[in-house]
Amino acid sequence: MGRAPCCVKEGLRKGPWSTKEDLLLTNYINQYGEGQWRSLPKNAGLLRCGKSCRLRWVNYLKPGIKRGNFSEDEEDLIVRLHSLLGNRWSLIAGRLPGRTDNEIKNYWNTHLIKKLKSTGIEPKPHKNFTKKEKSRNKEGKTSNNEKFKGQIVQVEKIKVFAPKPIRISCGILRNNSFENVTLSTTTCSSNSNFEKVDVGKDKEKEVKLFPRELDFGELLEGDGFYDEFLMGESCKFSNKVEMNDNMVEKVYEEYLLLLTEIQEDQKEQNS
DNA sequence: AATTTGTCCAACCGCCCCATT
DNA sequence: CAATGGGGCGGTTGGACAAAT
């Protein structure tokens, strides 16, 4: 017997959202905040599944969501982050201010794959190991996954440097202009997921950084740090980061820096 | 003008993780 | 320790629209 469904499907609406439904959802969340998605539809007077409400809010209604064409910088960043992270759209979205994982995923599938192919680049198909698979493959255990059945998956131990994960709340993007904030280092408790930095009237950003060298094998073996540093579940160091109009450029610079560090480290190891 | 084919993207589905009981 | 439920994620689908025939 499988799991009980997340909600009773009978009598619930599906398909495109009406303006009235959007309004009900927005008003409810503005008043009571996000969360409690299961009980939200009933409380808000919506005949929708809680998951559907969450998706509608996160991908469409949430303030600050950037819509429209992707800039070249954004495209470039997506391609590079995808080569690093694979189809982990939520992580990629976390580094593209105002863009949702769904939007990036769609954009990748409809535009970027074609674009890359037309320039002679074959995007790598990524097999994303789940944590379960990672732990299964650990210590040379055979995988139960059909695709990898009978194979012993060895995790190559190479060094990588953790890029600085930056999460930016949507608010700062409303007018696409950021105030400059000086860089400084602070610490925060593991309970506060992000340090919130007030940079203006209604603007707020959430930032965290991990200036830590990591072992790639450690990351893959699912000790949690990989996800932790990418997703920002907790923090050891938290920096205030300069915010300006060229946010994408800055993330890109950061990426280049990361690549340089990896190359230098590999040179050192080889010599 | 009518029909077919292709493209795009919002939304759904199923699975997973993790906290709680 | 196992069962349960909430929330989140990635893959996929289906309908609207555009372009081609």
UniProtKB/TrEMBL annotation:
Q: Which domain of life is it from?
A: Eukaryota
**Residue spans of biased composition, Basic and acidic residues class:** 130-146
Molecular function terms in GO for this entry?
Answer: transcription cis-regulatory region binding
Entry GO terms, CC: nucleus
Protein keywords: DNA-binding, Nucleus, Repeat, Transcription, Transcription regulation
Q: Where in the cell is it found?
A: Nucleus
A Pfam family name for this chain? Myb_DNA-binding
Ranges of residues in domain Myb-like: 9-61, 62-112
Q: What is its main location?
A: nucleus
Ranges for domain HTH myb-type come to 9-61, 62-116
Q: Which InterPro entries would you find in this protein's record?
A: Homeodomain-like_sf (IPR009057), Myb_dom (IPR017930), Myb_TF_plants (IPR015495), SANT/Myb (IPR001005)
Gene3D superfamilies tied to this protein: Homeodomain-like (1.10.10.60)
GO terms in the biological process aspect are: green leaf volatile biosynthetic process; regulation of primary metabolic process; response to other organism
Q: According to the UniProt record, where is the region Disordered?
A: 121-146
Stated name of the protein: Uncharacterized protein
Q: Which organism is it from?
A: Solanum pinnatisectum (tansyleaf nightshade)
Task: Output the lineage of the source organism.
Answer: Eukaryota, Viridiplantae, Streptophyta, Embryophyta, Tracheophyta
